[in-house]
Amino acid sequence: MAGVTVQLREKLVRLQSTQESIETLSHWIIFHKKSSEQIVSVWEDEFLIADEAKQLSLLYLANHVVQASRKKQLPFQQHFHPALVTSFTRMKLDGSVDTIKRCARLISIWADRDVYSASETEELRLALGEESLPPPSSRSSSSSSSSSSSSS
Asked: What is the 3-state secondary structure of 48-89?
């Protein structure tokens, strides 16, 4: 197991922001699913020392792993959630407006695809400093009422 964490650290240092780099490392991580807790721990350690551009690449990597592992019923989804809360809290404090918007977009994707439960998604939103979203039914009714009042 120690070998996997050492290899992962090396691979995370070399991670680039390209789709190919993220997908390749995601597949490697999923292959080593038996070390999922250690992998997430190393990912979080690397996130905390990375610059903002690297942090965004690490978040895209986590996104790829979480979505792929959800389809295969692997434990990465549950192991990544606390690390993502910590990471988004850090982004809220240190991230640029553009990076925070990209993080919010990831959370929206996870909510839309039911990657995380509503309460887990809410926790991620709050960690990022985003306001809570109203339930979907009230969002659609408020937009339709505003459009009907503007036509009068």
From this structure: HHCCHHHHHHHHHHHHHHHHHHHHCCCCHHHHHHHHHHHHHH
**The pair of three-digit structure tokens given for residue 53, joined into one six-digit string:** 């551009």
Other Cβ atoms within 10 Å of 129 Cβ, number: 15
| Token pair of 9 as six digits | 């650290």
**Mean pLDDT, 10 residues at a time, over the chain (152 residues)?**
88 96 97 95 96 96 95 90 96 93 96 94 94 50 41 40
Phi, psi of 71, deg, nearest 5: -65, -30
Q: How far apart are CA 37 and CA 141, in angstroms?
A: 42
The SS3 of residue 137 is helix
Do 76 and 31 form a contact (C-beta atoms < 8 A)? Answer: no
User: What does the DSSP assignment read for 107-125?
Assistant: HHHHHHTTSS-HHHHHHHH
